Fold these 2 entries.
Entry 1:
Amino acid sequence: MSRNPILRLAACVLAASIHMQSVVRADAERPNIVFIFTDDHSPNAIGAYDRWLKSVDPTPNIDRLASQGMLFERSYCTNSICGPVRAVIETGRHSHKNGFRRNYDGFDWDQPTFPKLLRESGYQTVMYGKYHLGGTPQGYDEWKVLPGQGVYYNPGFITPDGRDRIEGHSTDIITGMAVDWLREGRDPDAPFLLRVQYKAPHRGWMPPLRHLDAFDDVLIPEPPTLFFDHRTQSPASRHQEMEIDRHLCPHHDLVLDLVPDRGDYPGIQRRQDTSNWNTLRRMTPEQLAAWRAHFEPHDEAFHAAKLEGIDLVRWKYQRYLRNYLGCIRGVDENVADLLAALDELGLAENTVVIYSSDQGFFLGDRGWYDKRWMYETSFEMPLIIRWPGVTEPGSRENRLIQNLDYAPTFLEMAGVEIPDDYQGRSLVPLLRGEDDLEWRDALYYHYYEYPGYHMVPPHRGVRTDRFKLMHIHPFGEWEFYDLEADPMELTNQYGNPWYEEQIAALKTRLDELAEQYRDDTDLSERSAEWKEKFRSAAK
Ligand code: CA
């Protein structure tokens, strides 16, 4: 409730009048939900997760949210890629059930998504920002979404009334939409679901102009595995295209030559909607001048230095991380603005605030960028939930949870019945701090997108409290990790007789989970010739 005594009195009078109308009273007891969702924000780049990037203080405001709520330490996705993660959240069902396995699949909006059920129960439902599902959103009273991946500067939006183009940085614009709606758009007598979904910090990592130099004076710490050679992995995980060294190409993948006349290399194919390059063409002359003033001297210095080998990897890592973290600095500031608006409007006490991102992201660990793998770094998702009066401030939860659990959680928060075919579990008992609870012992994972960007092969897997088994099925490859002995998953123990029993047990558990979730994906291996070609391409 507001700190202002007059507003507080007004709220009490309002509450008393609501008390007389039983239908509305039920609504007044149901919490509002503000779901803040970013793209590719690794827990490694959140201070509250206490990982190797904490020393650069990437997220002071998200950390404050964590200190007021609950942080999930073992939170994972079911399929580590942007659109499919969102489809699982929307539907409460695995990719193989909701039909959206790969980014280029189409999403069937006719499914019983959780916002539809909230809306039917009297919630106002609103979504702004990146949705990455394609098609016309269903289940929302109001929406403005970025087409595809969206762009950072002067983005276009799809709205129910057609296309709109707004000047500014996408993170600031999306927050502006949300705050405007909170102030003027909503019906104060009904609870709401407000989804605030940023493009940041997705590639091509373009921070707001005010944060271009935010990390210039800091040497970003390197992860211990920046130069990992992958020889202790199966050939499948050596065959990929996601290495800072070999694949984060200086003049292609958006790390170097970030001013127009430097980077226009003939023959370099640029992605239509994600490239810094196309975004530079959308900038106003003032924006471009500020951008150029920042990057041009850095690019000149880089070319003069003629770096090679590990020095070049280190330079690319610094440039990549500075821009990535600059995007996150923009998000963090905007989270503060949203929280301030909730306080100012007297909404904070009855509003659940969730911070999450669609998957983790390699930030130089294993020598990589991007995501997709079931390795912890890209399998995990940050999740912080502040629910005043329910979550213990500063609490940490370490039971195994997944994005599959979000939809049932939102429904239970709102007192709405969870459909039988939803495959996750509500986190509400965990949020209430219930310890005496039977909880799942294993997570199921399945990634499908191949061939595609970064050439990560399809794989499925199971993770328990201590062990992980990955089945890279088109290639007949397996990986097994003891996460207690080897938390960074550096040594594949598949085939090690020491673990024979545990590997057999996890194989059984994997089949049981596939059965439980009714995953009938074809797991047949590719031809021997095909596999040989694949193996010979492995590093
Ligand atoms: Ca993503």
Entry 2:
Amino acid sequence: MHVTLCFGLSTAGPRNFPCYVNDSRMNSTCFLLFFGFCLCFSGAASPPNFVLLFADDLGFGDLGCYGHPTSLTPNLDRLAAGGLRFTDFYCTSPACSPSRASLLTGRYQTRSGIYPGVLYPGSVGGLPLNETTIAEVLKPLGYATAAIGKWHLGLGKNGTFLPTRQGFDHFLGIPYSHDQGPCSNLTCFPPDVKCFGVCDVGCVTVPLMYNEVIKQQPVNFLDLEEAYSDFATNFIFTSVKKKQPFFLYYPSHHTHYPQYAGEGAAGKSQRGPFGDALLELDNTIGNLLTTLEKTGVINNTLIFFSADNGPELMRMSRGGNAGPLKCGKSTTYDGGMREPAIAYWPGTIRPGVTHELASTLDILPTFVRLAGAELPKVMLDGVDMTELLIKQAKSKRETMMFYPTDATEKHGLFALRLGKYKAHFYTQGSIKSSTTPDHDCPGSAILKAHDPPLLFDLEADPSENYPLPLSKRPELQAVLEQIEKVKQQFEASMVFGVSQMLKGQDSSLEPCCNPQCTPKPSCCQC
Ligand code: MG
């Protein structure tokens, strides 16, 4: 059946609601159907809800719906089958904190100062409060907002940088990565089975926080996913009951190292600890879908799934999988930054696959458009992808910029994608991408400058294995010139924000449930 997308005009309220019409004949029947449908749609007239799901260190090849043979991801596969699955979707950094800063602000992390590297439990800095997050653009429209899971955009003195200071009404979660604490006591299910691996030592154990208060330290990982699922369910029920639109942001700890899983998922996948952790995340997504269906808001909710950076290949079979893409975490090859992404909104987004270029940067402008909110009055790097989602139209995005984890003004961009071409001005491996046979990936692949840049055709060679022979193909000179022009224009627009990471760390800022206790950090247990 051929389906045509029509846009309702003022009947749908302040924004243009999309309506599908069975359109073998675009005639008066279609118009009436269309008009009636839009009236029905506008009868619901509440702004759409948003559920933003963000996995951690998940590779392009890790989901069943992206071709992994042993991952068990039935709910994500269901979202992909009923929604729009992206093949060319990028995060902005191959590391946690900077990638999250861009997701929530629609700006490259270099503008907000979330570089170099990531934030730590005692970091003095965090996502600056004058940055505008997705939660903050939706709040003025009456949205209820909640974040559950891994924040990793700062804690600071007296909780200065917690989600509750960045537009979220509620926060239940861990303020940073769950390996940023002595997790030697981390157990998998059954509870007497130790999880694989070791974590950071010399700092406080990992806390679970509700808003700005520590609820548990160390957190019990085996109960954590159920707590998140219950909290999210209650948040949705309460918001629907109050007839309040909502924004639920769930940046999961899964599938970051060290992997864990509670009773519902441990040992239940074919893929070992990584597969179990992924299954636990997938189970929660299933619970959220059920809740959205039960509360009758599934057709007025955009669910968007992606991940913060590529797989930590150094963990070998306990790391993720970049599929056909080159290298992984902490590199600017596509394996580090091209991610699975799915947009699901039954009745509004047609099922399909898109090869259009898109990014986490584009989520803020898209939510703004769909909610009828106002864009922050700052330099944004994201573009509105509403037409891409709803009409499967061409993307407004033509370029993608690649900064390394340790971005510097001196080096600037490491790579730039323009259409199907990607140019590498610098390449560098990382210890986090060690262990694969590709010699370009590990830490021993030192920083190399390329002039002219290495140029790849990502459509013909998505694995970035075969640099195009510039001397034998003079027509590529025009491509290089265009890329250089775009690079110069972009870098002229880039004002690096004050680095929050270079503000350093102060162990007294590490969260402790018993602040007066000694000796720290071991006494911080409640
Ligand atoms: Mg990560």
